[in-house]
From TrEMBL:
<dbReference type="InterPro" id="IPR037128">
    <property type="entry name" value="Quinolinate_PRibosylTase_N_sf"/>
</dbReference>
<keyword id="KW-0328">Glycosyltransferase</keyword>
<dbReference type="Pfam" id="PF02749">
    <property type="entry name" value="QRPTase_N"/>
</dbReference>
<dbReference type="Pfam" id="PF01729">
    <property type="entry name" value="QRPTase_C"/>
</dbReference>
<comment type="similarity">
    <text>Belongs to the NadC/ModD family.</text>
</comment>
<dbReference type="InterPro" id="IPR002638">
    <property type="entry name" value="Quinolinate_PRibosylTrfase_C"/>
</dbReference>
<keyword id="KW-0662">Pyridine nucleotide biosynthesis</keyword>
<dbReference type="InterPro" id="IPR027277">
    <property type="entry name" value="NadC/ModD"/>
</dbReference>
<dbReference type="GO" id="GO:0034213">
    <property type="term" value="P:quinolinate catabolic process"/>
</dbReference>
<protein>
    <recommendedName>
        <fullName>Nicotinate-nucleotide pyrophosphorylase [carboxylating]</fullName>
        <ecNumber>2.4.2.19</ecNumber>
    </recommendedName>
</protein>
<keyword id="KW-0808">Transferase</keyword>
<comment type="subunit">
    <text>Hexamer formed by 3 homodimers.</text>
</comment>
<feature type="domain" description="Quinolinate phosphoribosyl transferase C-terminal">
    <location>
        <begin position="137"/>
        <end position="302"/>
    </location>
</feature>
<feature type="domain" description="Quinolinate phosphoribosyl transferase N-terminal">
    <location>
        <begin position="50"/>
        <end position="135"/>
    </location>
</feature>
<dbReference type="GO" id="GO:0004514">
    <property type="term" value="F:nicotinate-nucleotide diphosphorylase (carboxylating) activity"/>
</dbReference>
<comment type="pathway">
    <text>Cofactor biosynthesis; NAD(+) biosynthesis; nicotinate D-ribonucleotide from quinolinate: step 1/1.</text>
</comment>
<dbReference type="InterPro" id="IPR004393">
    <property type="entry name" value="NadC"/>
</dbReference>
Amino acid sequence: MDGVTSHPTDLTGTGLSAAWVDELVERTLTEDLTGGPPLPSAPDVAVGYDVTSAATVPGTQFGTADLVARADGVLAGLPVAARVFRRLAPGATLTASATDGDRVRRGDVLLTVRGPVRALLAAERSALNIASRASGIATHTRAWADAIAGTGATVLDTRKTTPGLRPLEKYAVRCGGGSNKRMGLYDVAMVKDNHVTAAGSVAAAVAMVRERAPRVPVQVECDTVAQVTEAVEAGADFLLLDNMTPDQLRQAVAAVGDRDVELEATGGLTLAVAREYAETGVDFLSVGALTHSSPILDLALDLRVG
């Protein structure tokens, strides 16, 4: 761990909007605190607070909670998790002992929060869910980044993200040493087979995009080396090389030559073959599994009362 800060809720440098993060925190807490109707077994208990903590923890009790790694990995989402505690305990003291992007070890204390125990316990699961999910993605991404280190290729994510969590998940990819592909359908024109069918040809599809969205980069999906040549001649900025073998990728790289066209390999990639594919000369490997299949990083909250 390399970072120590007394301002762990600072989003500077994350690329995350404070308004978006605050909305995420609100939605996340709502699931736990105001997500359902009054319980039939306790109709007199108002929905909107942690019923267990309200019953067992004195309202005046203060404590200190440590956010702790239960496994080795790469940290991400700590400023977002910290804002969960800030939301329920505005006067809490938060001190971070790690920074997003750090490699952490089992047993490391990542964040220490001192405040009302009821608030700390009410915030616990929401904070852990956010940081565990983001850190799991960062950890998985780091494994890919390490696997292809020195090849000149970069690992990319895709749009296969959890609905509503795309900014956080793509941020986590960056924390793990990867890079982001397009954020949505608006920032890159991805010409795929269905677009070609509708437009009539690759050249026609690229020309239509150039005419109607001249400032948007154009990427074309290619399944064969022949399609690579067609897409380059049509004026594509970069190519998505889908389900090609390493030999086909090398042929695609040779076909592009020294033209200013970036190449991205995708489809069926695994860590076991990552380096072989990266060494073909492509610029990127895109891996949907970074965001749709990463296991969480096990994190926990350890409380000390008093």
